[in-house]
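Figure 6 in text form: structure in, sequence out.
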């Protein structure tokens, strides 16, 4: 007969059980009490293993709370993942379950730049800049980039108006919807044009038409385009009235603007 502590069986049941010989039996009892032979029961090795396994399982889950999850941390062990905060999303990190905290209002879930894990990001993924402080001169028959002074919104460092006030720079390769608008004062002769230029070399969107009869006109353009990270766009205006004209700025009016939104 082998007299073995239950705590030892819980720690290493397989090693201890293989040390017994056929015909031996194990007596499991509270060593602080006197043995009452009338209460001795014979238990098989298989049933003993079940008892030890159940005891070990109960020890693992003894500190659980409502909402906790249990998972296999190895081929022979269980571990507990404490419940996440309300709104958390169950994900996986290094092969084990983990919680991703809930995002902020209007955020959406997307993969990170390395495509290794989900992360929260703004639902717009874009930028809008405008010229709101002062008028800008546009010389005759000269394509002139609009100099912007206000970031209306910017979700991913698209714009740096302090150093590059004419540009929106694409941070991530993808498909984007882009557009521009300009409010140009001009006489009733000649034509007015608005462009979106890629990298100061290629026009990817254009509007061109005769100067309006009342001497001022709003121009708007937009297009869908696939950009590479590091590309930049500019909005340019030209007019052929025969003299210098102005992009007119009205207080709190965002009529002179450029914008971009990533859609894929």
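Output sequence:
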């Amino acid at each position: 007969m082998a007299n073995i502590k239950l705590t030892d069986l819980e720690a290493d049941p397989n090693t201890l059980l293989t040390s017994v010989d056929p015909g031996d039996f194990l007596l499991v009892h509270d060593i602080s009490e006197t043995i009452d032979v009338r209460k001795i029961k014979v238990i098989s090795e298989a049933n003993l293993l079940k008892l030890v396994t159940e005891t070990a399982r109960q020890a693992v889950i003894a500190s659980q709370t409502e909402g906790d999850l249990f998972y296999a941390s190895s081929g022979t062990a269980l571990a507990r993942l404490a419940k996440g905060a309300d709104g958390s999303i169950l994900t996986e990190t290094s092969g084990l379950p983990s919680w991703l905290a809930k995002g902020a209002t209007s955020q959406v879930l997307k993969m990170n730049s390395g495509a290794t894990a989900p992360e929260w990001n703004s639902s717009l993924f874009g930028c809008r800049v405008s010229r709101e402080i002062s008028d800008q001169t546009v010389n005759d028959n000269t394509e002139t980039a609009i100099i912007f002074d206000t970031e209306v919104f910017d979700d991913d460092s698209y714009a740096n108006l302090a150093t590059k006030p004419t540009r929106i720079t694409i941070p991530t390769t993808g498909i984007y919807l882009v557009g521009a608008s300009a409010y140009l004062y001009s006489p009733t002769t000649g034509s007015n044009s608005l462009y979106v230029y890629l990298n100061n070399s290629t026009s990817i969107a254009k509007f061109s038409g005769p100067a309006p009869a009342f001497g001022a006109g709003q121009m708007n353009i937009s297009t869908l385009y696939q950009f590479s990270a590091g590309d930049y766009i500019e909005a340019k205006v030209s007019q052929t009235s025969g003299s210098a004209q102005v992009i007119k700025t009205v207080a709190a009016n965002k009529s002179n603007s450029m914008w971009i939104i990533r859609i894929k």
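Caption detail: The radius of gyration is 36 Å.
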